[in-house]
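Service request form, structural biology core

Requester: graduate student, group of Dr. S.
Request type: structure prediction, single chain
Budget code: on file
Notes: please return the result as structure tokens.

Sequence provided:
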Amino acid sequence: MGRSRQSELRERITILGDVKSASFVPWIRRHADKLGLSQDFLHAGADRIELEVAGPVELIDMLEMGCSLGPIDVWVDEIQRRIVDPADTHPFP
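Core staff response, request fulfilled:
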């Protein structure tokens, strides 16, 4: 049985806190890849990481949960999510 395309979304995720992007960005990429989510990083700094992800909403929820717990050297204060209008998105490979 195939997966319904209706359940797939494109969302912008903003992660705020002491996020140490040099180690957290590769961590997020690895976990998003394991979940089969497409991703495009828009900003990566010491206090904020912003990315767009696309895939089933349940898997985006799982990525958010993983990011909130994160690696040991990262402190996440807040994660903001919003659905992105397809006309405003960056193309995924």
